[in-house]
Design goal:
It is a single chain. By secondary structure, this protein is α/β, with parallel strands linked by helices. The two termini are about 15 Å apart. The chain is built from four helices and seven strands, in the order βαββαβββαβα. Strands 3-2-1-6-4-7-5 form a seven-stranded parallel sheet. The protein has a single domain, classed as Alpha/beta knot (3-Layer(aba) Sandwich). About 30% of the residues lie in helices and about 20% in strands. The relative contact order is 0.23. Helix 1 runs parallel beside helix 4.
Length: about 150
């Protein structure tokens, strides 16, 4: 069964987070990255020039993202939430679009509702930089696919 995934940030707090996420997406085999509500500017944090191999899409809103989500892909929100599955036991969909919220406020209630599934990264502080959180999810996906 074919698989792919993309990952993106809603209303990113700093443009450098996109560059870092792009670099990690390149390392872990993402098919694309995206932003919702912000535009990307070339960042020094993308040291591998991932823009050459992984497309970036910009969406105006969550509704715009949902109108353009690939066929048969699940929108998976990465968020601390009582209804979220814990990442260590989470079974990644074959075709997924992972959605991260800005690190200062996460995903809103309506953004969470727009997602098919929610997953949380367990940890002592449970507070990570948004690009780091995305990297953890992509690493988890890649190790589970290899198993």
């Amino acid at each position: 069964m074919s698989s792919f995934y993309g990952i993106g940030i809603v209303n990113t707090k700093t443009p450098a987070n996109i560059g870092t996420l792009w670099r990690s997406a390149h390392a872990f085999g993402a098919s694309f990255i995206f932003t919702v509500g912000r535009r990307y500017r070339l960042q020094a944090s993308d040291t591998v020039k991932a823009w050459r191999t992984i497309p970036l899409f910009d969406f105006e809103s969550i509704a715009d993202l949902k109108r353009h989500i690939p066929y048969d892909a699940m929108l998976v929100g990465i968020e601390i939430d009582d209804s979220a599955a814990s990442l260590p036991v989470f079974e990644h969909p074959k075709r997924a679009v992972y959605l991260l919220g800005a690190e200062d406020h996460g995903l809103s209630a309506s953004e969470r509702t727009a997602c098919h599934r929610l997953v949380a990264i367990p940890g002592a502080s449970r507070c990570l930089n948004v690009a780091t959180a995305g990297t953890v999810v992509m690493y988890d996906r890649s190790t589970k696919e290899a198993a």
